[in-house]
């Protein structure tokens, strides 16, 4: 049991939504040390700019713009004019996070702060129109309106959306509208997994974790056929030997009987030696799991992207770079993987970009240039593009941009490729 909260020696290296992977805000609340990981506050909370009030809460402002044409520069990669993985269009959708495509590609689901600083679930069209808040009114079986709902993912059938929901009662209940505290729930602390229908009218809880200790669910992903769910469970607070906490990676059958979804046959598939283990999703054929881990790495500030072969347990480290690599996703074709990496900025602690690689880890290349002037997705702020989700055709990504100087504020983008990069 911790009697006080100490700052990790290398807290400045915390990155991405893993900025708060060690659940940083807890350094302000000494009595909660026995429940939660130790950490350090990185930046003062900032209210996301550009929000407007609406009956459904706070949603992105009305202006949805496309960036201008890109330009060659010192960081530009030498791609051919016929490269299908060049970004052809970048659209800034405004404040919000974790956007994910519906299977039909006509909607995005995402989370955004409401006027009270609570994350609510929304849907909108990919052009930013038609925004609907799914959780701004109470629904039977759903988390309370004043509790966070974060990190939504669509079921491949389009019938359900999986989401993390903050527990009704937890040690941070009275502070949950603090934006830094909200990031603890984004990173899994004291949340359960739910599924809801796309209209937000029906809710089903999938897990029942404890609010009396460090516990919670994060990083849920469906298999392409919709029959499996993989996620990570936070089971122990951070420590000197586990600066991001202790995690388990779990898999279960996703079953619907009489219209009611549930999990069956939950299995622990945490690799031996795994401490920080973040589920990133299934391969398109369902035979492998992508995950992020500091496993086998003496430097906890340089996690790698791994694959786990479900039938054999075979493990492959795809990056093994010493850089911060995280949030990997297979393209629908299985021919490419997109992931976040600090590799383009080895001497800058607060920048990342999205990268592409082949499924065997070869052919790594920088995809985005959020931090370099002159590109379609460039912005003035120092930032970390983190999660990137492919649409079903492999022609576009929905991206979360972490604004470093305004942490934990995030912005959403859609990036359309010049061709079927992931198809």
Kindly name the structural category: mainly beta
How many domains, as an integer?
Answer: 1
Most strands sheet: 5 strands, antiparallel
Strand order of the largest sheet: 3-4-27-26-25
**Which series of helices and strands comes N to C?**
EEEEEEEEEEHEEEEEEEEEEEEEEEEE
Annotation field: number of helices:
1
Unreliable stretches: 1-81
Q: How many β-strands, per DSSP?
A: 27
The coarse silhouette is globular
| Mean pLDDT across every amino acid position | 84
Distance from N terminus to C terminus (CA atoms, Å) equals: 50 Å
What is the third-level CATH name, the topology? Neuraminidase
The CATH H-level superfamily is: TolB, C-terminal domain
Helix coverage percent: under 10%
Proportion in β-strands: 35-45%
Overall CATH class: Mainly Beta
Radius of gyration: 20 Å
Which second-level CATH architecture applies? 6 Propeller
Protein name: WD40 domain protein beta Propeller
Organism: Nitrolancea hollandica Lb
Family: Belongs to the TolB family.
InterPro entries: 6-blade_b-propeller_TolB-like, WD40
Kindly describe this structure.
This protein has one domain (11-417): 6 Propeller (Neuraminidase). The protein is 2% helix and 38% strand. The chain has one helix spanning 179-186; strands at 51-54, 57-60, 65-66, 87-95, 97-101, 108-113, 119-124, 132-133, 149-154, 161-166, 191-196, 203-205, 216-222, 228-236, 246-257, 260-268, 277-282, 288-293, 304-309, 315-317, 325-330, 337-341, 353-357, 365-366, 383-390, 396-403, 410-417. The protein has a 5-stranded antiparallel beta sheet, with no helix packed on it. Strands 5-6-7-8 form a 4-stranded antiparallel beta sheet, with no helix packed on it. Strand 23 and strand 24 (365-366) form a beta hairpin. The longest helix is centred in the middle third of the chain and has 8 residues, at 179-186.
